Amino acid sequence: MKKKLVQYIICIGMLLTAFAPMGIPKVSAAPAEPIQPLPAVGSSGVTIFIDLRWVGEESNLTYDVYFGTVNPPPLVSSNQSQALYKPGRLLLNTTYYWQIVAINSLQESTPGPVWSFLTASDSPPFAPVVLNGPPEAGPGISLKFETVAPDPEGDQVYYQWDWGDGNISEWLGPYAFGEHTETTHSWAQNGSYQIKVRSMDASGEIGDWSDYYPISIAPQIRFLNLKPGFLYFNIFDHDKTYGYIHSLDLLGMSLYISTGDLKVNATGANAVNTVIFQMANRFLTDEQWNVTYNNVTGHGFEGVFTLNSGLYQTTATAYDAQGRLIDIATRQYVSFYLWQFTLLKQILGGQ
What we know:
By secondary structure, the protein is mainly beta. It has three domains: 35-119, Immunoglobulin-like; 129-217, Sandwich (Immunoglobulin-like), CATH 2.60.40; 221-347, Immunoglobulins (Immunoglobulin-like, Sandwich), CATH 2.60.40.10. The protein has helices spanning 2-19, 246-251, 341-347, and strands at residues 35-38, 43-46, 52-55, 62-68, 75-80, 84-85, 95-103, 109-111, 115-119, 129-132, 136-137, 143-148, 157-162, 172-175, 181-185, 191-201, 213-217, 221-223, 230-235, 238-244, 253-258, 262-268, 274-281, 288-294, 300-305, 310-319, 325-337. It has a seven-stranded mixed β-sheet with strand order 20-19-21-27-26-23-24. A hairpin with a 6-residue loop joins strand 4 (62-68) and strand 5. The protein is rod-shaped, with a radius of gyration of 42 Å. The termini are far apart.
């Protein structure tokens, strides 16, 4: 009996010696619960574009994500490595439930608690901003204005303009989230006006009016010569008004007699940067010219044209420094060269 006991002890010792380098297997611990949820537990007014985040207290973990509008929430992502889940656009004013299960390398898992949050109700768009538009222009000119108003929920947006002259536009749109939009308006009367604009989302939520955008309406370009009713002489580059003729004034025309080129003079307001003169024969459509003048010191503008005798119209189109059309002026007149003046006097009954 003693001999067998000794043999058992020797065998056990040999086994312990054989397995000693391998060590004694240890029992692993399951991962800790996920913590620090974002959004926080019980949050309300949460944006519908929220991303879910949490913290795992160990490295090399993977996660199963449960998320939805019911409790318990359904599984939406399995064995993902990031502590982040992007659910996409959520519903407004809705309670969501979510739970994270942490999994270690031995596939041992620990579920966290079920968290919840409430999304925000629909909010109106932010107050728009008038981004672009001329602050000065002439009456009757169709002017462009640009605005944008992001919506908190990314909805499409409509715009309504108050032009300050008693005219309020219909709701214009819809326009995509963040899209810049243009609209036009003209003022018939000279004066100072205050423009404002507001926005409405697709759900009918109306935002605040923008700050006022001031605009002054008054003529921006004026002809210095070729005034209706007057006779002009341009003798060897000397331009002089001779007199007033009532019959020409009734026709809204002037008479220009020259030894050479015809000169059109105009003055622009401070806002005028560029003027394009267009000369056109009222009867010969192929007889037209354009002359452009930029940044003239003192806001004086001059167009010089070589013409035949006849009935003409000059159009002066004024642009500001941003290239925006701000005014148009026109003049009609009869042009004669000096060598034809004798014939004119005979027609008028002179000597």
